[in-house]
Design a protein that fits this description.
about 425 residues, alpha/beta, 15 helices, globular, binds ligand C2E, binds magnesium ion
Length: about 425
């Protein structure tokens, strides 16, 4: 028997049939609203924002889920009226949320059809201007399928305007459709949401696990945030924490909540357990890539003119130790480990490594004899080994700490009263 209060129950079907006219009445009659599902930062275990999810609350209290009306609205074209009609309601909620906690972000779902003309972007721009909403706290989620299906110059232009406003763009349900790494890189997405089906399949499929890990790695390399949806167990949560995922959302953490309940849990300042050990792993890989790119660049300079082939474009390694990926981790999310002695030990060898890198490039450009260049390259490799060893020790110690820590997760937060 399915329990209507258990969020894992199959979605109930509405008691009456739904057509466009009924949906239009619901919109104009104020029966549509938003619930907010918290998103947890895997860097500090705290709620960092939420996803606004539409709900149709009938006068008798019946709550109708979007799967019963969004596909209909999308196929009939009513979706643009729905999105525009609901936007003022969303803005009202956003103002309440921001008054309460201004650092909290909110994402909301739109359809690619909403960007066929500029009306939606204009509405978002007006809201930002008139209500002084911080665009950095707003994110639009679009599914990869809808983007590919509606791809045209207007869509591209309007998405570009959206991003120019400073609003984030998240690719929803990544891993379900046909979007490839290539698609991701051609659109201005700065966040990837791994599909919950893919996340769920990890329990029974090594391939799904590899796809998730590779997607996290790819998004990380492209500098994107990564949200895993559909976290239904502590095992999934731990796995993602150790894989370098940056954000998590799912029933195990919290289900979508009416605004008042969402505000109430924001006020509790809950914290989920865990150290972002996966991010140390990413920092290690980043360092290896940095070293590889630097050596490739030095060799390319030293051998310039000896080949007529067109060079492959690669990332030029960042020479500033605060700005390379390892540095950005160290002075950013890595600070979660600042009390660990190994963490403090990392800074000097990392600086020294960058000095050597700079010296090497300068020497290669000067055209120093090859045997001297090889000597410098050896020094760089030795210095890199010191950095790697410290990172690996830190990773294993943090993993052990994590295993020893009692798994202290707050009670999952579920919808009540419906
Ligand atoms: P989505 O954007 O991928 O949203 C996530 C969906 O997964 C939500 O379903 C959420 O309740 C559900 N979910 C969250 N955690 C878990 C979990 O741990 N396990 C499982 N099994 N499910 C989980 P919901 O609210 O029914 O929304 C379904 C879809 O409807 C959304 O998928 C989104 O594509 C669409 N949608 C929702 N609100 C809007 C809206 O305002 N506008 C548009 N255009 N689409 C919307
Ligand atoms: Mg979504
Ligand atoms: Mg999704």
């Amino acid at each position: 028997m399915s329990n209507p209060k258990d969020p894992r129950s199959p979605p109930p079907s509405p008691s009456t049939s739904i057509d466009e006219a009924a949906l239009a009445r619901a919109l104009h009659g104020g029966e549509l609203t938003y619930y907010y599902q918290p998103k947890i930062s895997l860097i500090n275990g705290k709620i960092c924002g939420s996803e606004a999810l539409m709900r149709w609350v009938r006068p008798d209290g019946e709550v109708i889920l979007p799967c019963n009306f969004i596909p209909l609205a999308e196929s009939s074209g009513f979706i643009t009226q729905l999105s525009l009609g609901m936007f003022p309601r969303l803005v009202e909620d956003l103002l309440i949320i921001h008054d309460y906690r201004d650092e909290i972000s909110t994402s909301f779902n739109l359809s690619a059809q909403d960007f066929r003309d500029s009306a939606m972007v204009d509405a978002i721009r007006d809201a930002i201007t008139h209500h002084q909403l911080d665009p950095a706290r707003l994110e639009v989620e679009l599914t990869e399928d809808s983007v590919l299906h509606w791809d045209n110059p207007e869509l591209r232009e309007n998405l570009r305007s959206l991003v120019e406003l400073g609003v984030s763009l998240g690719m929803d349900d990544y891993g379900t459709g046909y979007a490839s790494i290539d698609t991701l890189s051609q659109w201005p997405f700065d966040c990837v949401k791994l599909d919950q089906g893919l996340i769920r399949r990890m329990s029974g499929s090594e391939k799904a696990t590899t796809i998730v890990q590779a997607s996290i790695r790819m998004a990380h390399q492209l500098g994107m945030r990564i949200v895993a949806e559909g976290i239904e167990t502590s095992a999934l949560y731990d796995f993602l924490l150790n894989s370098g995922c940056t954000h998590a959302q799912g029933f195990w953490l919290a289900s979508p909540l009416p605004l008042e309940q969402y505000l109430a849990i924001l006020g509790k300042d809950q914290r989920w357990s865990g150290l972002p050990t996966g991010l140390i792993h990413m920092a290690t890989l980043d360092h290896i890539h940095w070293r590889q790119a630097l050596i490739a660049e030095v060799i390319a300079i030293a051998f310039k003119g000896e080949t007529r082939d067109q060079p492959i474009r690669t990332h030029t390694p960042e020479l500033d130790p605060h700005k390379c990926r390892l540095g950005r981790w160290y002075y950013g999310p890595g600070q979660e480990f600042r009390d660990h002695p190994l963490f403090a030990e990392l800074e000097t060898p990392h600086f020294r490594l960058h000095e050597l890198g700079e010296q090497l490039l300068e020497a290669a450009n000067r055209g120093i004899p090859r045997n001297e260049l090889v000597g410098l390259l050896r020094q760089l490799t030795r210095q890199s080994a010191i950095v790697l060893e410290l990172l690996q020790e830190l990773e294993s110690e943090a993993l052990l700490d994590h295993l020893h820590m009692a798994h202290h997760a707050p009670e999952p937060l579920h919808e009540r009263g419906h």
